[in-house]
Amino acid sequence: MRDTTKHQGLRNQLATVLNKKGIVDEKVLNAVRKIPRHLFIDSSFEDHAYQDKAFPIAANQTISHPYTVAFQSQVLEIKEDEKVLEIGTGSGYQTAVLLELKAEVYTIERQHELFKRTSLFLPKIGYKPKRFIFGDGYKGLPEQAPFDKIIVTAGAPFIPKPLLGQLKVGGKLLIPVGEGTQIMTLLIRKSLKEFEKHELGDFKFVPMLKKKN
Ligand code: SAH
């Protein structure tokens, strides 16, 4: 596992590309400049690690586009020590960004292979979420609720009710909703019963699936 000045140079360029695409949060851009994304993907794709591309990882899943990760991170406006639930650990790249933003992260993955692999890999390169959970993100994590922020990184056919219920008042749920293409949807909890909804454009994610695998 090597990280070189060449990789650092490529990361700086990627941050510039993301900035031109509309990512202006310096903390998010600094996370992109810092995290060795090439270590999160198969070494045969290493040359592409710092282009704004999605890639296959284990278990037929993908690591999201850097732009998508940066966009979701920027929208959530993560602050230090906020309690964040992530649905869809995958490669752990988004998890690493949340940790660079100093969140307290709980991350759920339904594919056992990915859960195992990423829960070993991330701590090895210095990224330590509060908990890795092998489970079904549709249910959220009631025993640790409420959360300041919930981020879903798979395409959800609908907004799971339990996730809304596990938000603090003032908290935010960011979830791509739809089949095929998804609309990035931000829900802000205004009170116990009221949510404000914002639609933030089209994205493409792998589908959020039910049950563990
Ligand atoms: N943030 C990840 C994105 C991975 S793709 C990254 O940047 O690498 C989406 C991930 O969501 C996949 O790993 C998939 O297995 C997982 N997933 C799909 N349905 C899920 C569910 N119901 N609960 C938890 N994880 C789920």
Automatic annotation (TrEMBL):
GO terms for biological process: methylation; protein repair. One of its GO terms (molecular function) is protein-L-isoaspartate (D-aspartate) O-methyltransferase activity. The gene is pcm. Keywords: Cytoplasm, Methyltransferase, S-adenosyl-L-methionine, Transferase. It comes from Tenacibaculum jejuense. PANTHER family: PROTEIN-L-ISOASPARTATE O-METHYLTRANSFERASE, PROTEIN-L-ISOASPARTATE(D-ASPARTATE) O-METHYLTRANSFERASE. The active site is at 64. This is Protein-L-isoaspartate O-methyltransferase. It is found in: Cytoplasm.
